[in-house]
Protein: FxsA family protein
Organism: Microlunatus phosphovorus
Amino acid sequence: MLAAMVALPFAEIYLLVQVGHVIGVWWTLAILVGEAMLGAWLVRREGSRAWTALNSAFASGRMPTGELADTALVLVGGVLLVMPGFITDVFGLLFLLPFTRPLARKVLAFFIARRMNKLGLSTVLIRQDGTIIQGETVIEGESVEGKTVPNDPASSGADPGGRRSNDGRNQPPSSGPVIIAGEIEEQPEP
């Protein structure tokens, strides 16, 4: 990664010189200025769309994973397009354009998951249809409000940590593990 960051400016300069020799210095500069202007326009347009989608996800109570990734990709893509150079412009366009951003999001998620696995952190990749691609065992279930479990501290009037002070007020829960009581029901095979 560090080697790529060091090599990128040299590759950009080499490519700029080669393009300048082929089409001329003024045309090369005109293309770079045009790409920067296009990048600024795309960042404004796609940034406001991504921000609106992120806010609507928060307002609806959903986890905004895709929207958050899109917002980050738009930001990074805009920075790459404003930087002078053709290589960064290609990556900036991949991150900014709405029809290439889902591919960039998937590739980015793959590399992040691979890096996390190398660090020893477990990851679970789940498709939008709910199928597991790789990772840990996932037990499907649902949360039902209003039911209490026998011997549940919440049903006896205590707080989830199960402690009360002498005057009857709840104390903060202990820092121990959170235990979720329940049962696993076998689903009949279809």
Observations:
- Helices lie at 2-23, 25-60, 65-82, 86-96, 101-118.
- Strands lie at 125-126, 132-134.
- The chain has five helices and two strands.
